[in-house]
């Protein structure tokens, strides 16, 4: 299997090369050159455990890796989940189930991809002998999931910048109480934008980047998308004949479009899914796009579902590639116009498999309350966004992207009770061990020179 860039101006890569590269040199994102047809395999896959299913699926893509290696990597990646099913499908009523994607080490769905990516990086370092320094800025979930994907891995150091005092207490503790020496949580005296600007500067410094082989934790790595495909297949395989016949709708709380894109790809590979619901918070660029064809950036307004507070949905480019007939030249034209003007209107893109909704903070609070009233189920603020205008004649599968205990204040306000999770209780009183830097690029460069692992 070969991988191509959505912008068509980079060389084809093998799986391990595409994973090691991240963003393609032409600025595009990697995709499989052709998609396999998984429909004939579904019967054989029906009774597999989650790791077995993941292995069978990834085997179709990681064709330049030894199967034994892949097997070990997949098994290790799902060994730190607290539930045997890995992704339990919880039935709320006849037409509605919740796929719980929050039983990984940091209690958010990003663990599915970042546990696997961490193990793939480790394999790469063993193979090449070159160390990697992972660098990123976070406003919460991605940073902690990336840290927990790389904990204690040989040859990797991870530097995560976050705005001091502006991530939640629990998110900060997930990043700063690991006691692993390869983890560098750095509190910045500034905003998330300041932290992100510092990271951007570091990547722009060719010297620094080459000397320390700096690597990003962004959501665009091919391996992250493929890892996320697996739970759509897993969920579909749990359904009975009747549920499938009614038509299966996945309802996906969406920010960067990474999660829902993975689901859509499995449909392109032959999984019989009728459609997808793109559920956004008040930052509704994607809701507007799927309802009107008009894609336009507006300012981000912080919400109670902060992991969906995004401006530009970077993974949308992968969907765009298919919707313009796999024509990289058209992808480049759209992306250039979008970059220049901050907006683009699609005349003829096929959005028939999608519907979209948005929810503001007030509705999120009310919805957490009504879900609890109706089903005695506690949904986190991101998951709550999915419970809007569901078509009860269909089989709806809501993706639960975070554990409610990660957002105790919102749940407390809505339900008058505080959800807990053992892994969070365990770290609540642990001392924070972090580094502090002023919001200056120079300070980060100095810090990296002192702490990053060079390949000399
Ligand atoms: C990252 C995240 C999302 C959004 O996922 P995308 O792939 O960016 O659409 C939703 N909910 C939670 C809890 C997240 O951490």
Task: Give an overview of the whole structure.
The structure is a single chain. The protein is 43% helix and 16% strand. The protein is α/β, with parallel strands linked by helices and 456 residues long. The strands form four sheets. Strands 3-4-14-9-10-13 form a six-stranded mixed β-sheet. A five-stranded parallel β-sheet has the order 8-5-6-7-15. Strands 1-2 form a two-stranded antiparallel ribbon. A hairpin with a 2-residue loop joins strand 3 and strand 4 (96-100). Helix 3 (50-59) crosses helix 10 and helix 5 (110-128) crosses helix 10. The longest helix is centred in the first third of the chain and has 19 residues, at 110-128. It is globular. It binds pyridoxal-5'-phosphate. Pyridoxal-5'-phosphate (PLP) binds next to helix 12. Pyridoxal-5'-phosphate is lined by residues 108, 110, 141, 219, 253-259, 307-308, 382, 401-402. One of its GO terms (biological process) is threonine biosynthetic process.
CATH topology annotation of the domain at 85-108 and 223-424:
Rossmann fold
Strand content: 15-25%
| Tally of DSSP helical segments | 20
Extract low-pLDDT stretches.
none
Taking Cα atoms only, what radius of gyration do you get, to the nearest Å? 21 Å
Oligomer: single chain
Largest sheet: 6 strands, mixed
Report the end-to-end length measured between terminal Cα atoms. 34 Å
Bound molecules: pyridoxal-5'-phosphate
What does the overall shape look like?
A: globular
Overall pLDDT metric:
94
CATH secondary-structure class of the domain at 85-108 and 223-424: Alpha Beta
Coarse structural class = alpha/beta
Q: Order of strands across the widest beta sheet?
A: 3-4-14-9-10-13
Kindly state the percentage of residues in helix. Answer: 40-55%
Count of beta strands: 15
The second-level CATH architecture of the domain at 85-108 and 223-424 is 3-Layer(aba) Sandwich
InterPro entries: Ser/Thr_deHydtase_PyrdxlP-BS, Thr_synth_N, Thr_synth_N_sf, Thr_synthase-like, Threonine_Synthase, TrpB-like_PALP, TrpB-like_PALP_sf
Domain Threonine synthase N-terminal: 2-78
Cofactor: pyridoxal 5'-phosphate
Family: Belongs to the threonine synthase family.
């Amino acid at each position: 299997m070969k991988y191509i860039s959505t912008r068509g101006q980079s060389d084809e890569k093998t799986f391990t090369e595409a994973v090691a590269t991240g963003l393609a040199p032409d600025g595009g994102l990697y995709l499989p050159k052709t998609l396999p047809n998984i429909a004939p395999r579904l019967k054989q896959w029906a009774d597999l455990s989650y790791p077995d299913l993941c292995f069978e699926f990834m085997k179709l893509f990681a064709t330049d890796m030894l199967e034994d290696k892949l097997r070990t990597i997949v098994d290790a990646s799902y060994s730190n989940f607290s539930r045997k099913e890995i992704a339990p499908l919880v039935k709320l009523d006849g037409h509605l189930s919740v796929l719980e994607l929050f039983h990984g080490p940091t209690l958010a769905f990003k663990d599915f991809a970042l546990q696997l990516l961490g193990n793939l990086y480790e394999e790469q370092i063993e193979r090449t002998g070159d160390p990697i320094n992972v660098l990123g800025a976070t406003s919460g979930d991605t940073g902690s999931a990336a840290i927990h994907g790389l904990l204690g891995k040989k040859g990797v150091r991870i530097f995560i910048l976050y705005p001091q005092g502006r991530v939640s207490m629990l998110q900060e503790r997930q990043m700063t109480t690991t006691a692993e020496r390869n983890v560098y949580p750095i509190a910045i005296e500034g905003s998330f934008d300041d932290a992100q600007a510092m990271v951007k500067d570091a990547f722009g410094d060719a010297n620094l980047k080459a000397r320390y082989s700096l690597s990003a934790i962004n959501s665009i790595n091919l391996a992250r998308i493929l890892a996320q495909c697996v739970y759509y297949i897993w969920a579909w395989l749990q359904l009975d004949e009747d549920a499938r016949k009614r038509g299966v709708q996945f309802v996906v709380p969406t920010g960067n479009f990474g999660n829902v894109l993975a689901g859509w790809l499995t449909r392109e590979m032959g999984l019989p899914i009728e459609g997808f619901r793109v559920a956004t918070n008040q930052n509704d660029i994607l809701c507007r796009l799927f309802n009107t064809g008009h894609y336009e950036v507006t300012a981000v307004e912080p919400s109670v579902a902060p992991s969906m507070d995004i401006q530009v949905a970077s993974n949308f480019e992968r969907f765009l590639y298919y919707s313009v007939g796999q024509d990289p030249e058209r992808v480049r034209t759209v992306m250039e116009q979008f970059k220049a003007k901050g907006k683009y209107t699609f005349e003829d893109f096929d959005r028939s498999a999608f519907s979209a909704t948005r929810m503001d903070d007030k509705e999120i609070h009310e919805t957490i309350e009504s879900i609890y009233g109706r089903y005695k189920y506690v949904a986190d603020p991101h998951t709550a966004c999915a419970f809007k205008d569901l078509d009860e004649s269909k089989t709806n599968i809501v993706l639960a992207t975070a554990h409610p205990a990660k957002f105790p204040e919102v749940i407390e306000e809505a339900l008058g009770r505080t959800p807990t999770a053992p892994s969070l209780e365990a770290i609540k009183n642990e001392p924070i061990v972090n580094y502090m830097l002023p919001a200056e690029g120079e300070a980060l460069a100095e810090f990296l020179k002192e702490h990053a692992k060079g390949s000399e």
